[in-house]
Structure formats: structure tokens, C-alpha cells
Amino acid sequence: MSQDLVVLCAAGMLVTAYLMVGQKALFTAIRLYAIQSVLLGGVALVMGLAGHNAHLLASAALTIGLKGLLIPWFLMRVIDRIGIRREIEPFLNVPSSLLICLGLTVVGYRVSTRLADGAQGAAHHVIGVSLSMLLMGLFLMVTRRKAVTQILALLTVENSVFLVALGATSGMPLIVELGISFDVIVAVLVLGVLVHRIVDRFDSMDVSRLSKLKG
Amino acid sequence: MNLLLWTLAVPLLTALAGLLPLPRRWKEIALVGGLALTFALAVGTASQFLAGAVPGAFDEALRVDGLSALVLVLSALVGLMSGAYGIAYLRRNEDRGLLTPWKRREFDALVPLYVFAMLLVSVCNNLGILWIAVEVTTLASVFLVAFHDRDTSLEAAWKFLMLGSLGLAFALLGTVLMFAAGRGVLGEGMAGLNVTRLIEVAGQLHPLTLKLGVVFALVGYGTKAGLAPMHTWKPDAYREAPSPAGVLMAVGMLNGALYCLLRVHTIANAALGPGFSSRLLLALGLLSVAVATPFILIQWNLKRLLAYSSVEHVGIMAIGIGLGAEAATFGALLHLTYHSIAKPLAFFSAGTLAQLHSSSNFEQIGPGTLGRTPVASTLFVLAMVIMTGSPPFGMFFSELIILRAGFAGPHLAASVILLGCLVLLFCGFAYQTGRLVLGEQPAAPARPVDVEKMDFGSLTMLLAAVLAVGSAFYLPPGLLELIHAAARVVEGGR
Amino acid sequence: MNLVDSFGLGLLQAAVLLALAPLLRGTIKKLKAAFQNRQGPPLLQGYYDLAKLLGKEPVRSDVSSWVFVAGPRVYFATAVAATTLVPVIVAGAPLEEAGGILVLVGLLALGRFFLAAAALDTGSPFGGMGSSREMAVSALAEPALMLGLFTVALWGGSLNLGDLVRTTAARGLSAHPSDLLAAAALFIVLIAEAGRVPVDNPATHLELTMIHEAMVLEYSGADLALVEWASALKELLFMTVLVNLFLPLGLATGVGAAALAIATGLYLAKLFLLSVGVTLVEVTNAKLRLFRVPELMSASLGLAFLALALRFL
Predict the structure, then answer these.
(1) pLDDT at B261
(2) Residue B146: what are its φ and ψ, rounded to 5°?
(3) Quick one: closest CA in A to B212, which residue?
(4) Cα→Cα distances B331→B325, B374, C253, Å
């Protein structure tokens, strides 16, 4: 039962990553990220409850609180403040992006079968999903030009790494996890401040305008 | 608290002191004093190691072995020099009305914080803590890159943070996978991330998981080190960061990232045999040197020139490690040492040139700086001579050692490429330096040029020159001993 | 079960679902109003509207042909026929021997074809616009629907919805990622087929954006009642398929009164939950621009395709 729930949550994360690629509204993308993080917390929660593992529960709470609520709220606020609600303009159109992501998922799943316990059971799906998400996050990062969407792509990659940690091990030691979460939060704050400054300066958060530095 | 913890605590306290709204003089004294004390403590920790102890803390999460001690001392030294030059840098900017009190506070807090993170990286024996420390260096340096608040500095900071975070995400994935590879043996606790423990049980790690982990970790930390093709943040960040912060990145971050690479490399060596990570490092190193060459030949900006020089040098070090021979490893570490000592001179002199001309573009500075700013120009020429590995300076010998080991070993083609690139690079630097320093002075310069003054900055610059030149003729025996110890760590893993 | 009995049961099920369909729409409207802090129309408003419309004489254009008359009737008939293929509260459908997924999709496509043809028949610009838009959306929605259903069929080893529900019910809650992906794909198809935000907006007649409403603009009286009723039935049908295929909890396997009562309760509860989900999507999203709709549908198609691919990984 718990295995099933873990797989369901992981699959849900894959769906959110996929939808993030497949749609262009900024607010929806942030909401999808929030759902994705809550699902990640759900994976940790279920594993923690099933294995009576207190530190997984703590990390679940941390994930849901920080990544599911705080970071999305902060990003929404950034967008609100700079008053840009226009849609994401990817370099590549949606159908082809989706096709590529489909291929990426297949690759991610193939690779996952070669890991320590990635060949069967729940871990197979969890690792497969996380590697696919990792690739999708990278793909998002290179094809999106709005600053906030690049942050979201980075955060998706981050989530997928945490999912690997849950699938391939049962979570990192708590101290390390705390440190990593703290760093991620600070990184997002710093990025938010930078977005502010970029918008102040360029009246746009289109990062493809950041192209003065060459050579 | 033992000496090691004090070494880490002092820069942190200095950073806190930097936030206080004190008068200028007090802040300067606090900054330099704190960093000097840090350096002294680092030397103390290293000598503890040389005396036979293994300083450590937090259940071996922090542990000083030969490699740690070497990087620790070098990082602390660079931190001190950067702080000292930073004071002069800020004073000069203040004289031109470019500095607000808030900016000064930002600088005074971020530089020691950065030094703290660098030192923490260099003593980490735990992959998880190591990752966190590297991330802290990144976060501390973002606002240093964006310090000047220009369009271009925002761009540079954005690229730096995006690429850096992406690299770190890779490194985190690598860390997780390496942790997973040892889970069956070491369990779920902190021991599973402990480098020493991982090496002890190297034979029992799950090979494929570990392989994947090593690749991700090398690529991730390689991004921080600025190995090509992940080097693209470097020229932008170096150009935009104020010179004192630039030198922290060019030496501190480079050494720290190289430290991470070496730790991963030793684990991979122990578990997967010598060929695996060496080949990757060799390839990345060669690519870095090869990529840096054309960009140096066509460079148009002084600080970007330094950035590509840094790409080149980290490439040389990676090649030295990747060659796999004992002598080459020693050469790489020697190169690391000389590079750390010589790089500040290059940054300080180039920074002074740029500051006096209000720009780091060749167009605005040159030609004929020798006539306008004789001291800075001379020192810049000296720095370039040292950095290109000309005899009798240290880098000549370290590069020679690496090349000799390369020609003796199986990687003949790689060695030939390296040699060719080094020759080309020498020409490139000579050309660029020549067109900047020599030549007719323009009758009417594009912008008014400030007169060179003997201030605290020039003093630091001279001191850096003395160190850089002096190191060629006299390396303290303790330091040499540290390099040998570090080479043993890289070779044997302990 | 003999043929007459099956037929009788099928008719009964169709009648019950027909009776239920306007209530579902009313519920979603009410929920939506609640989310927006409005009073909203009464729960039974749908029935009043249908009664009113059925009592009125339809007005038809002089230039329209028999296709215009046949459109709503075929649309209605196909929707009713489709309900007999779908398991509702019992683990099996009344007329499941008559066909499975392919027949279901085919029937719905037939109805859609006739409605679109009828909308073209009057020659009014809105009708033509509506048909072309509807077809553009369904060109992507239909394959997504089929692929999504195939994913489940692959697991159950049958194309028959009754068989599928029985096997999934026997297996318990599915835990393969592909099921969730297929469910997500079908959910998007549901949104599109029901003409809900963000694909279409059932509440407005704004010519720039409307899809379904543009097609039926020419209808009035009893004709319109048939169309509205059939649309509501179709929505209910999709939701039923979705909840019963992916969450086959509590479907009655016997005919005991208690089992049937529990199954009915669970079914209604699942429907309600799904309605809440649909409403949430409606209130939190803005209507997509028309050109963005195909992108959403291709996302759904991609999800369905991925779901199918994951079965083999």
C-alpha cells in the first residue's frame, strides 16, 4: 500500500513536470511547482510513516512547508510586485517540447534500471521518474527565457534530485538535508532579488536580453 | 573549541562585524585584522597537521589531511590579501563617490563570509557538508559579482548563479548517488557521506551507481571550477566582480572546487580503478586549455583575459591529475600552489589599471599604460610573465613536471596538445600585454585617467609581487611538505 | 443474462443517468459559485431549463435541411447509447457484449459529427466557426482519449469496459505511474469535452472564444433541450468512465441491496470529488486563448502517449 502511494506521488510529480512543459501561463507554472513539491513531501511522508523514520517525516514537513508553500508564495509575490503576467515565451513550441520530453522520459527510465535497486519495485518508478524530471528540468532551463521560469526549471531539477535521494536511498542524513534546504531557500531569495533588479533595469524579465557579455 | 573551529569561526565573526555601522577606520581594521587572524589560525592548524595530528571536528565531518591543510592555508592567504586590497579598492571608489555605506557593509560582510565558506570547503570530509559549503560560496559571491549594479553586472550575476546552481544541482545528484552506492555497506547515517569511510569500503560500493554519481559530481563541481565547457560564467563574473572579490573567485573558488573534484576523484580511484575519473578529468582539462587559447588571442577586456587565464590554469591542473602519474599529481598541486600565490598579483595590478582608467576594456585603457601608470603596468607585466609559466618562476617548473610526466606516460597526444596550447598561450599573453602596456600614448585619452598614487592598494600590490616572485626562489619547507602530503592523499586516498 | 434483460437494464441505466445529468451540471455551477462567494443558480435549475425548453416549439431556419433536424437527435441518441456500455455502480455494463472502448469512442464521434454537420447546415458564420473549432479540438482530444483508455486496456487485457473494471477492481488500487498519467490525460480530455474553462467557457456567449456554444447557437426549443441534455449526459459519462476505471473502489459485484446501496453512495461521492476537481480547475484558471487550446490538448495527448510508453519501460 505504502509502495503504491509512493509510486502515485512520484507519478504525480512527473505529470506536473510534464504540464509545466506543456503550458505557458506563469502563475500556473508556479502552482504546478507547488503541487510537485507537495507531492515530493508526500513521498517522504509515506516512506517515513511506513518505515517509522522520524527524519523522513521532518524532511517531509520541511519540503511541504518550504517548497510547497514558501517558495511558490515568494515567486508569486515577485511576479506580482514586478507586475508581469504575460505568458512564458519558449524558444520551442509546445508540441515539439512535449515530444522531446517524452523521449527524455524514456531515457530517464532506461538509465534508472541500471542503478543499485532501480530495476524493480517502487524504486524503479521513483528513480525513473526523478531522472526523467531531471532531464525535463534541464530542457526547461534551456528553452525558457523568462527569469522566473528559469528559476522554476532549476527548482524542478532540485526536486528531482531530492526524489532520487528518496528513491535510491531513504533520504540523506537530516543535518545535510537541513543544510541543503536552507541553501535552496537562500538561493531562491537571491534569485528573486536579482529578478527584481533585472526588471528594474531592463523593464522585462526576459533573460535573453542579458546578452551583452560575449567573447 | 579546537584550533580548526576557531579558524572557521573567526571569518564568520568578521562577517558579522562587517554588518555593524562602525566608522570606516574601525571597519577596515576589523576586516583585515579578522582575516589576518584567520590566516594565522589556518597556518596553526596546518602546522598541527604537520606535527602529526589530524585536526578534526564533528565526528570526522571536518578533518584536516594533507590536501585540506594545503588548500586551507592557500585560501586563507588569498582571503587576507583580498581583504587588504579590498580596503584600498573601496577607498579609491569612495574618493570617486561610487560607494554608499550600504555597499561598504555588503562588501565587509560578504568577503569574510566567502572566506569562511572557502575554508569550510577545504576542511570538509563529508560529501554532504562539502556540497553545502560550496553552495554557500556561490551565494556569498553572487552579490559581489553584482556589486556595481550595472546592466552587465546583473547579467553576469544571473548567469553565474544560474549556471552555478545548475552545476550544484548536478553535484548534489552525484552526492546522492555516491551516498546510494555505499548505502548497503555504510548505512543511512552521516557515515555514508564520509569520504574516508567511503574510501575504506571502496571495494563494496555499487559500481554503476557510483560511476553515475562520480560523473555527475565531476561535472557539477567542474562547473564551479570553471572547466570547459561549463566555464561560460567565468569571464562575465570576473569582469564584473570588483577585483578583490575577483581574486577570491579566481583562487578561492577554483581551489575549493578543485578540492571537491579531488575528493570525488580519490573515491572513484579507490572504487573503480584508476582509469575512470582520470580520463574524464583529462578530457575536461584538455578542453579547457584548448578553449581558453583562442579566446585569449582575441580578447578585448583585461579582466576577461584573466578569466580565460584561470580557465587555462584549472585545465592544466585537471590534466595533471588526469594523467594519473604520481609526478603529475604532484605537479598539479604545485601548480595550484603557485597559481594561488601569483594570481592575486595579476588581479591587483589589472584591477588598479582598470580602476585608474575607469574601465577594463583594452580600448579604454591602452596603449602605452607604462607611461601613465608605471607601477601597476610593470607589475602587470611581471604577473603575466609569471602566469604564462616563464622561467625562473614557479609555474614554469610545475608545468614542466606535468609535461614530463605526460610524455613519459601513455597520454602522449594529450601532452603534445597541452604543450602546443601553452606555447600559443604564451604568445597570446605576450601580444595582449604588449599592446596594452607598450606603444604610443594617445594624445588625448578617451576618458580622464587618474594619477597613480602610492596608497594602501599599491602597497598590497607590491606585497603580492614580493610573494609571487619570492615563491619562485623560496617555498617554505612546511608548505612543500604540505604539497607532498596532499599528493599522497590524492594518490593513496588517505 | 438474456438479451431482453440486458436491454431493460441498459434502458434503466440510461434513464437514471439522464435524470442525474442536469443535477451534475447544477452541482458544478453551485460549487463554482460557492468558490467565488456567490449564491449561484438553484441546484435544480437545469431541470427547470429543460422543462421550459422542451415545452417550446423549435424555430428552424428556412434554408436548413434534414441534417439540421437530425443533428440534436443523433447527438442525443448516441450519448444515450454510449451510457449502456459503461459500468456505473455494478462491475459490468448492461450492454457490454455490444462493444467496448472503440464503440464508445465511435458513438461519441458520430454524435459530434452530426452536431458539427448540423451547425454547418444553416450556413450561419457562427455555426461554421463553432464546428471547425470543435473539430480542431477533438482531433487532438479523441486520440488522447483512445490512448488513455488503451493504457488501461493494456493492463486489463481487454477492450471491454466491463472486463476492465472487473480486473482493476480485483487488483485493487493501481500503483503504476502510467495509470496516473492516463488519468491526467483523460481529465484534460474531460475538461475539453465538457467545454469547461480553460478550454471553453460554458457560461458565456462571447463569439471570440466560444466553441461548443457557437455550434448550437441556431437551436431553440426542444432541439436545444436535446443538445443541452445530451451534453450534460456526455459530461457525466466521461466522469463515470474516469472514476470507475481509475478508482474502481466499491463497485458492486453482486445484486444485494446493501452492496448496491454502498456502491451507489461511493459512486456519487467519487463523482462529487471529481466535480470539485473540475470546479477547482475552472475557478483557478483563466480561459485559454483559442490558439493555446491545441497546445493543452497536445499536452494531454502527450501524457496519454507517455502513459502507454511507460507500460513497456
Answers:
(1) 94
(2) -85, 15
(3) A115
(4) 10, 34, 78
d(CA A215, nearest CA chain C) in Å: 38
Min CA distance, B5 vs chain A (Å)? 18
CB contact under 8 A, A98 and C179: no
C-alpha cell, C218: 441556431
Tens-digit pLDDT profile for residues A85-111:
566 667 788 888 888 998 998 888 888
Helices (H), B254-373: 254-272, 275-297, 302-322, 326-357, 362-365, 369-372
Q: Which of C138, C286, C266 is nearest to C201 (CA)?
A: C286
Domain assignment present for residue A177? The answer is yes
Q: Please indicate if any CB of chain C lies within 8 Å of the CB of A16.
A: no
Reading the block at residue A35, the C-alpha cell is 503541487
pLDDT of residue A5: 85
Q: How many domains does chain A have?
A: 1
pLDDT band of residue B229 (cuts 50, 70, 90) is confident
Cα–Cα distance between C179 and A153 in angstroms, integer?
25
Least CB–CB distance from B180: residue in A116, A197, A211: A116
Q: How many domains, in total, are found in chain C?
A: 1
Q: Which three cell numbers stand for residue B436?
A: 596594452
Residue A171, pLDDT above cutoff 90: no
Q: Is A215 a domain residue?
A: no
Residue A56 per-residue DSSP state = H
* Residues 6 or more apart in contact with residue B73 via CB below 8 angstroms: B42, B43, B46, B479, B482
CA A119 – CA B383 distance, rounded (Å): 55
Rounded distance, CA B89 to CA C195, Å?
A: 65
Q: Does the interface predicted TM-score (ipTM) exceed 0.85?
A: yes
Domain, as residue range, for C17 = 3-310
Q: Hey, what's the cell of C298?
A: 497536445
Which grid coordinates belong to A130? 526523478
Domain that holds residue A179: 2-209
Q: Which residue has the cell 484558471?
A: C285
DSSP track, B417-452: HHHHHHHHHHHHHHHHHHHHHSSPPPSS-SSPPPPP
Which residues on neighbouring strands pair with residue B126, listed in sequence order?
B194
Q: What share of chain B is helix, strand, coil (3-state, %, to 5)?
A: 80, 0, 20
Q: Which of residues 257-296 of B touch A (CB under 8 A)?
A: 295
Which residue is closest to A96 within chain C, CA to CA? C298
Which of B126, B139, B144, B162 should we substitute to test contact with A (largest number of A Cβ atoms within 10 Å)? B162
Total count of residues recorded for chain A: 215
Nearest-angstrom CA–CA distance, B303 and A213: 12
| Per-residue confidence in pLDDT tens, chain C, 313 aa | 566 777 888 888 899 999 999 999 999 999 999 998 988 889 999 999 999 999 998 888 888 889 999 999 999 999 999 999 998 888 888 888 888 899 999 999 999 999 999 989 888 888 888 898 889 888 889 999 999 999 888 888 888 888 888 887 777 666 788 888 899 999 999 999 888 888 887 777 776 777 888 888 888 899 999 999 999 999 999 999 999 888 877 777 777 788 888 889 999 999 999 999 999 988 888 788 887 888 888 889 989 988 888 888 7
Amino acid (1-letter code) at residue A123: A
| Chain C contacts in chain A segment 118-137 (CB below 8 A) | 122, 125, 128-129
Examine residue A214 and state whether it is found in any structural domain, yes or no. no
Note whether residue A74 is domain-resident.
yes
Residues 217-236 of B with CB under 8 A from A: 235-236
Q: List chains touching C (3+ CB pairs under 8 A).
A: A
Cell 509515506, residue located: A46
Q: Is A176 in Cβ contact with B129 (below 8 Å)? A: yes
Question: Which of C177, C295, C313 lies closest to A11 in CB terms?
Answer: C177
Chain-centre distance of CA C154, in angstroms?
Answer: 22
Cβ separation of C180 and A25 shorter than 8 Å?
Answer: no
CA atoms within 13 A on the CB side of B62: 22
Extract the C-alpha cell encoding A93: 513550441
